[in-house]
Write a structure and sequence with these properties.
The protein is of the alpha/beta class and 487 residues long. The protein has helices spanning 11-24, 30-40, 71-80, 123-131, 149-152, 169-178, 188-196, 237-240, 247-258, 264-288, 305-318, 320-323, 343-367, 446-457, 463-467; strands at 49-56, 66-68, 116-118, 134-141, 208-210, 225-229, 232-233, 327-334, 374-380, 399-404, 413-414, 444-445. Helix 1 (11-24) packs antiparallel against helix 2 and helix 11 (305-318) packs parallel to helix 13 (343-367).
Length: 487
């Protein structure tokens, strides 16, 4: 087995070593300074690129999102979901006739006449796919290393390791975002931010931005997760608003909160406070010049929280030059996907909101002239079971996900289309990618998915090992480190 220590040969390891030397008062040797110059070169970019993670909290049901459409696969899908083989709705299966408007028409057809359609509530995203602005990654999920179904059933976990705490919401959300279960302190988006800091000429605190609260995905060794709301920067009330209706009291508190202190901890705390106040002021000014009710931001749907989040991301991207940003990573999310019951009705609403929000966001980036500079991708705790529990589906593993943007090689499927089966057999070679109840054993890892986008973002060579510690377990054959869906 090939494991790579994440601290070796990475820029953030250099920064940590440099900080340790500075803390002890040691001067940096010339060789270390030269190393810093060399390590920083990869992200001295003059262009702009952004990655936007759309996380679907709760575990999205893959089978009713990217739906089997060709007659043979649809009949198996419908039977497994309690609908029978008559191609009408039943159980938690969607009616075949409802899928025609969202049929996906890839440039290169899938083997064995396989066809997919999107959920009927997703015409916008289906249109992006068919126009070449979106693609689907089939059966992707957390892995430590490539593994077969037979190896999954083998109890030798030293030889055939699995991601920690499979099927657990909190843990699998963390594994998707950080390669570690709940309790992780840094994520691969934050590690991208560590590398990107050198490319952002000012306001580096705005390299990693969440519009949905705290997230491990955006936490790096150096980069911080800067949080904004759908209305803009979050103010520190005591230093930006009058206290007891007194501007004098407010001014006094502000002075105390940001002034230089002789005590090391107090001084560092005030530095953080000053940075937050300055960032809020800078960001608010930039956003005021790009109001939400102006084009293209006024085209986003209302009553859709994900759309509100993505509208804020679009406004921040529009302000990139004013803010001095060349590389940014964003995080947005929507919840409600843990549909053990009421799957058909609940997912229809969720898929409609997801499709509308992603479509509006892509159209906004096109209007801003940066569609090829912004790549949006979906992620979720896990997929769900193909089999029905009566009114819903249960926790699974692999799932299908979307990549959207002008730099995406769209109108295409990537990865392996899994057979439609509940996968209870341990000997059927045709059922390799199921581990029971229609839970997909991922044929593509999150590391490969992430590495493909990280490469486009600007990560080079050994830096990838620091972003994704398990990427060294992949490469060549059926498990390339670059899946090829980015230009």
């Amino acid at each position: 087995m090939h494991f790579i220590q994440p601290d070796l040969h990475t820029r953030r390891a250099f920064l940590r070593r440099a900080g340790q030397l500075a803390f002890t008062g040691a001067a940096l040797p010339t060789a270390l300074n030269l190393a810093a110059m060399g390590e920083a070169a990869a992200f001295n970019a003059t262009d702009y690129k952004a990655l936007v993670c759309v996380f679907l909290n709760g575990g999205n049901d893959y089978a009713n999102t990217v739906v089997n459409y060709d007659p043979a696969s649809y009949d198996l899908y419908s039977t497994a979901r309690g609908g029978g083989a008559n191609r009408t709705a039943g159980g938690i299966a969607l009616a075949h006739a409802a899928l025609g408007p969202t049929l996906l028409n890839p440039t290169i057809a899938l083997p064995d006449s396989r066809q997919y359609a999107l959920h009927p509530s997703m015409p916008g995203l289906a249109g992006l796919f068919n126009s070449g602005a979106a693609a689907v990654q089939l059966n992707v999920g957390p892995l430590v290393k490539p593994i077969t179904r037979q190896q999954y059933h083998n109890s030798n976990r030293a030889l055939y390791p699995l991601p920690a705490k499979l099927f657990s919401h909190n843990d699998q959300q963390s594994v998707w975002q950080s390669s570690q279960p709940e309790g992780a302190t840094t994520g691969w988006g934050g590690h991208l931010g560590d590398l990107a800091l050198s490319a952002n000429t000012s306001n580096r605190v705005l390299t990693c931005i969440s519009v949905t609260g705290n997230t491990v995905f955006l936490s790096g060794d150096q980069a911080l997760s800067y949080q904004v709301s759908t209305n803009g920067a979050v103010k520190i009330g005591a230093v930006t608003s009058n206290v007891y209706n007194s501007s004098s009291v407010r001014a006094a508190i502000e002075q105390l909160a940001v002034q230089t202190r002789t005590h090391a901890l107090e001084h560092e705390y005030n530095l953080v406070t000053k940075r937050a106040v300055d960032a809020e002021s800078t960001l608010s000014t930039a956003l005021a010049a790009r109001p939400a009710n102006a084009a293209p931001f006024n085209t986003f749907p209302t009553g859709n929280n994900l759309a509100d989040q993505l509208k804020m991301v679009a406004r921040l991207i529009a302000a990139r030059d004013d803010l001095g940003n060349r590389r940014q990573v964003f995080f947005v999310s929507m919840g409600g996907f843990d549909l053990h019951d009421n799957l058909v009705n609940g997912q229809a609403t969720l898929m409609g909101r997801l499709s509308e929000a992603l479509t509006a966001f892509y159209n906004a980036t096109a209007a801003l002239g940066v569609a090829d500079k912004v790549t949006t991708f979906t992620a979720s705790d896990f997929g769900r079971t193909l089999t029905s529990n009566g009114d819903g589906s249960d926790h699974g593993w692999g799932s299908h996900h979307f990549m959207v943007g002008g730099a995406v090689k769209g109108k295409a499927f990537y990865g392996k289309a899994p057979p439609v089966s509940v996968g209870n057999s341990t000997v059927d070679a045709n059922d390799q990618w199921h581990v029971g109840q229609g839970r997909l054993l991922p044929s593509t890892s999150v590391d490969q998915y992430a590495a493909t986008m990280a490469s486009w973002f600007g990560v080079q060579g050994a830096e990838m090992n620091g972003i994704l510690p398990q990427i060294g377990n992949y490469g060549g054959g059926d498990y390339p480190t670059n899946l090829g869906f980015m230009v």
